[in-house]
Amino acid sequence: MHTQWESLANEHILGIAPYEPGKPIEELERELGIHDAIKLASNENPLPPSDRVQRAVIAALHQLNRYPDGSGFYLRQALAKKHGVMAEQVILGNGSNDLIELLVRTFLRPGDEAVVPHPSFVVYPMIVQAAGGVRVMVMLKDYRLDLEAMARAITPLTKIVFIANPNNPTATIVTASEVEHFMARVPAHTIVVFDEAYIEFALGPDFPDTLNYVKQGRKVIVLRTFSKATSLAGLRVGYGLADPDATALMNRIRQPFNVNSIGQVAALAALEDEAHVLECVRMIDAGRHFLLDEFNALGLKFAPSRANFILVDVGRSANDIYQKLLHEGVIVRPMTPFGMETALRITVGTPEENRKLAKALRKVLGR
Ligand SMILES: *Cc1c(COP(=O)(O)O)cnc(C)c1O
Fold this sequence. Notes:
The structure is a single chain. The chain has helices at residues 5-8, 11-14, 25-32, 51-60, 73-83, 96-107, 123-130, 147-152, 176-184, 199-202, 211-215, 244-253, 261-271, 274-297, 318-327, 351-364; strands at residues 38-39, 90-93, 113-118, 134-139, 158-164, 191-195, 220-225, 238-241, 301-302, 309-313, 330-331, 333-334, 343-347. The longest helix is centred in the C-terminal third of the chain and has 24 residues, at 274-297. The strands form three sheets. It has a seven-stranded mixed beta sheet, with helices on both faces. It contains 16 helices and 13 strands. Pyridoxal-5'-phosphate (PLP) binds at residues 43, 95-97, 121, 164, 168, 195, 197, 225, 227-228, 233, 238.
C-alpha cells in the first residue's frame, strides 16, 4: 500500500507555507549574466566583522575537533556583565531564531494563543503553528505595531505576545511610553517577547528599556542577536535575557551544543570591540539618510526607519521593480508575500552600494 509522506507529517506542519530561500548571489549572477551584484535583501551588516574578531576566529580554528562549551560559560558571563543581570538570566541560541523556537516549545501548549503582529517576522507565526498554538494576528497601523489592538487581543488563553522592535519588515519602532501603557495591561499569565534584533540602530530617548521589565520580574523575554549590528550573521549567535526560572525551563530542551565554538569565540571578541558596532551604526545612519533623500527625490513614500533597512513604496508592481533591479545587479526584497504589492524592503548597504541602488532605481523607474 502506498503512503504519502504528508499523511505521516505532524498535522500542524501541513498548514505552514514552504519557505523559499533566495539563491546564492553567485548563482544569480551566472543565471542573469551579470557580475558585481550587491545583496540588499536580508538586513545583513554590509561590513565584515572587525579584525579583532577575525583574529579570534582564526586562533580558535585548531580546536574545531572539540565540541563547543555547552554552557556558553564565558559568553554568558560577558553578556550578563554588559546588561547588569546574572549569568543564569542569559540563554544562548543558534541565532535568536533558535530562541524563538525554544521559548515557544517551552511555554506554548497546543491550543494556547500567541498574539502576533502582521506584517512582521514570519518566524513567529510559523513556529506557533508548528507547536499547535493559535496565531492571533493583529494588523499594523500606519506601518507600526498597534499595541492598543494587541493588548485588546489578549485573552485568558494568550500565552505569548511577540513584539519586534524595530519591526521587520517596516523598520518602525514602538516607543517607551507606548510599551509602558501596553505592559500595564498585560496579565500575569502572558509572556511578552521583545525581539530587539535591530536595537543598536534604534536607540534613542524614546526607545523602551525592556530589560527593566525583566529586572522587575515581569514575564518578559528580551531577544538580541549578533547577526545585525555586530556583523556575525553567518555564525548564528543570539541570546535571550529573562528570569532565571524562565531560562532554566528553556534550557531543559535546549540542545547542549546549539551555539558553535567559533560563534562563541567571535561573539565574545565582538563584545570587546564596541568601536566596530559604533562605526557600523554611524555608516548605516548616514546611508539611511542618503537613501531617504533619494526616495524623496523620486517621490516615493516610505515608512519611518529606525533600523538598517527601509520599507519603500515604489507605486507600481514591486515584483516587477525587483526583477528589473536584479538585472541591474541589485538584490532587494519584494513585499508581495506580505500582501504589499507595491513595497520593497531595502537593506542599507555601504555608501558605494547605496549609490549603486539609487542609480539602478532611478533607471528602472524611468527617471
Ligand atoms: C534578523 C532578525 C533576527 C535575527 O535572527 P538571528 O537568528 O539572530 O540571525 C531576529 N528577529 C528579527 C525580527 C529579525 O529581522
